[in-house]
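BUG: 3D viewer hangs when loading the predicted structure for this chain

Environment: internal workstation, default settings.
Expected: structure renders.
Actual: progress bar stalls at 90%.

Input used:
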Amino acid sequence: MIRQDQKLRKLRDRLIGENDPNTLVETLLALDRILVELAMRTFNLPRRTRVILREENRRLHHVLREHLPRFLELGRQL
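Structure tokens produced before the viewer hung:
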């Protein structure tokens, strides 16, 4: 069990590395924007619905930019 924890910790450290948490958050949010746009086009949503979804996504991203770096730092300390 300890070996597996060490492997997971090494993998996590390699993924996060010494990168700034804000950079990681921005990368994740960019990926999320791409996925949301792709889903809206795939399901051929009406224009009004796409506008509403983009607005909600911006609100979510604002909250994540504010709080997620702190959680990443706490996770790194463990």
